[in-house]
Amino acid sequence: MNLLDFWKELISYSFKRKIYVFLIDGLGTLPLDGFEKKAMRTLFPSSTAPILTSLYSLLPVEKHGIFEWMVYREGAEEPFLPLPFSTPSGAILKDVDERRLFFWKPVFERMEEKGVKCALYLPASIASSPLSKHLSSSQAIPYRSFFHLLPSLSASKAQFNYIYFDKLDGILHKEGYSEKAEELLYSLNDFFAVARERLGAVAVLSDHGHLVCEERIYPWTSIEKYIKKPLFGSSRVGMVKLKEGVRKEEVVDVLKEEWGDVLRAYDSSSFFKGNHINKPDVLVLPNDRYFLSFPFYSYKDRSHHGGLSKKEMEIFAYLSFADG
């Protein structure tokens, strides 16, 4: 079973019973005590933007078109970051049509239409983003302190309560599994010990795990003459579109010949069906030790995700249902 299939099961459960679904960004397989544990794989790419979009839309990545953290933008020097709605250098974009980007009806809206009241608890820092607004501003409840949410959650009248928490992921990116990350995990365990008693049916999910990488690589010079600008993807899965007339096999072969000891290159059709306008032609996946750098952005993170390694793709769902 993968994350999207299990998410659909939790939605089905909410038609019968009240449930609280927490998504702890970046939790992966880090331990939470006192829960039943269910192992599964997340979606590929193992990155927040495509995964959250799939959960919120119930669409696979190749259908909703947000293939990675950085999305292709025709003719631009830099790609587009759909969640913060900016470029990697921080420029806010006003020429991107939100309605075309988020064309799908959110699952929460569909549930409401079928009589299941939903409540979305989102960090205040992202609650007003275009994606959050698309999910339905009437349902979104911004919060500033996750660890003070229990009174509000206990009083909720909604059948499906969704709570997103992003702080752990930020720490893991910068430091890996550091003392600070460990302290936060202790706090999460304390929080959920009380939440299980007060809330009844609780499910804790993650979108992806993390992989500590040691070396940065920059393979793009080898294929510069074949590709369109801009490059896109993330530090663990590079994505390229090719110029007219260039064969995918040719570019894959060049990358394998020159960089085959540190990365794998694929025709993207091996992973994504269809012909979405944002679909890459070729994927570049570094081996576990490495991460990618880009001409417009050089990652300084210690820990990464987006790729296919076990540490990035394997996640646990933690479950505590009072009714069994």
Give a structural overview:
By secondary structure, this protein is of the alpha/beta class. It folds into 2 domains: 3-59 and 104-211 and 307-320, Alkaline Phosphatase, subunit A; 215-300, Gyrase A, domain 2. Helices cover 29% and strands 20% of the residues. It has helices at 3-14, 48-57, 61-64, 98-101, 107-113, 130-134, 150-154, 167-175, 179-199, 248-259, 310-313, and strands spanning 19-24, 36-41, 118-123, 140-143, 160-165, 202-205, 211-212, 215-217, 232-234, 237-240, 263-267, 282-286, 290-292, 303-304, 314-320. A 7-stranded mixed β-sheet has the order 2-15-6-1-5-3-4. A 4-stranded antiparallel β-sheet has the order 9-10-12-11, with helices on one face. A two-stranded antiparallel sheet has the order 7-14. Strand 9 and strand 10 form a beta hairpin. Helix 8 runs antiparallel to helix 9.
Low-confidence stretches: none
In N-to-C order, the SSE pattern is: HEEHHHHEHEHEHHEEEEEHEEEEHE
Count of separate DSSP helical elements: 11
Give the second-level CATH assignment, the architecture of the largest domain: 3-Layer(aba) Sandwich
Main sheet specs:
7 strands, mixed
Please count the beta strands (DSSP E, at least 2 residues each): 15
What is the number of domains? 2
Helix/strand/pairing category? alpha/beta
